[in-house]
Amino acid sequence: MSSTNILAQLTKPYLHNVYAYNLEHDAAEDPLVLSMHVECEDCHNPHAVSNTPALAPAANGFLTGISGVDQSGNPVDPIQYAYELCYRCHADSPAKPTSLTTRLIEQNNVILEFDPANPSHHALTSAGANPNVPSLIAPLSESSMIYCTDCHACHDPHGISHNQGNSTNHAHLINFDRSMVSPANNGLLQFESLGVFSGRCYLNCHGQNHMGFAFEY
């Protein structure tokens, strides 16, 4: 009998809803998920799993023997890195789920969001772009790598695609939630990085118009 309570994991408010699908997974299916579904076997091979630990971004024993998609969009079997499993459904898949948050820059492909060339991104595929992150809690540092699951409960913005954003206006994972802020009176909705621990923003927030409001953090 397992020492892990899987049922407790499946009663959380945000989850992979395995109850919604039955016998849709095919062991021979394309690593890039073409039709929306999620079952236990999509992420875990019951004949290969182990308790082997790993350090981010390497896949641990729970993900042994699973196929996925690499950072270049190519199928891999088995995966080497944990994020390659997530890329099956949340990257180039035509069936990928949509975001529940309306943002200034809409991007739902996590391969683009985690591209190491981006002006900002979470440190899944490489260390983050920002060399100064005072909010990190030890032992994490600016050179640390993390897993998707380290943030998955709050899981939004992953990063800004370099094809859509830039290091001036989208550093530090800035991608405004349009349900919370609106453009400033001059029509701008943007953040500008002014260097280390400094920036300014143009937006309306809580009824206040910020026209180049500068701050240090």
Give the helices and strands as they follow along the chain: HHEEHHEEEEEE
- What is the helix fraction of residues, given as a range? under 10%
Q: In percent terms, what proportion of residues is strand? A: 5-15%
Total number of helices: 4
Could you say which overall geometry the principal axes of the C-alpha atoms support?
A: elongated
Radius of gyration: 19 Å
Largest sheet: 4 strands, antiparallel
Question: If you had to describe this structure to a student in words, what would you say it looks like?
Answer:
- This protein is mainly beta and 217 residues long.
- The chain is 9% helix and 14% strand.
- It has four helices and eight strands; from the N terminus they run H-H-E-E-H-H-E-E-E-E-E-E.
- The strands form three sheets. Strands 5, 6, 7 and 8 form a four-stranded antiparallel beta sheet that branches. It has a two-stranded antiparallel ribbon with strand order 1-2. Strands 3-4 form a two-stranded antiparallel sheet.
- Strand 1 (68-69) and strand 2 form a beta hairpin.
- Residues 153-158 have low confidence and may be disordered.
Features:
mainly beta, 217 residues
The gist of it:
The protein is mainly beta. It has helices spanning 6-9, 40-43, 83-90, 110-113; strands spanning 68-69, 75-76, 120-121, 159-160, 181-182, 190-193, 198-205, 208-216.
